[in-house]
Amino acid sequence: MIVILNDKRHEVAEGTTLASFIDGLGIKPNGVAVAIYYEVIPKERWEDTVLYDGVEIMLITAVSGG
User: What pTM was estimated for this model as a whole?
Assistant: First the structure.
């Protein structure tokens, strides 16, 4: 199935969780916020959030500076 992350298509297996998807991308969860259709998903729910075909995900990474 296809999920859309920051306007890019990714193919994932049925039943993939948000946590395993992020991990599979090699992204460290610290300093990262994830939203599905503009609703932020708390990290505590990543393991329980199962992705589905066509879902639109936004990943935002915090950067330090000033």
Answer: 0.89
d(CA 66, CA 58): 24
CA atoms within 13 A on the CB side of 50: 5
Q: Does 65 or 19 have the greater pLDDT score?
A: 19
Q: Which residues have C-beta within 8 Å of that of residue 32, sequence separation ≥ 6?
A: 22, 59, 60, 61, 62
SS3 23: helix
Kindly report, residue by residue over 2-20, the tens digit of the pLDDT. Answer: 999 999 999 999 999 999 9
Domains of the chain: 2-61 (3.10.20.30)
Report residue 9 as tokens: 């298509």
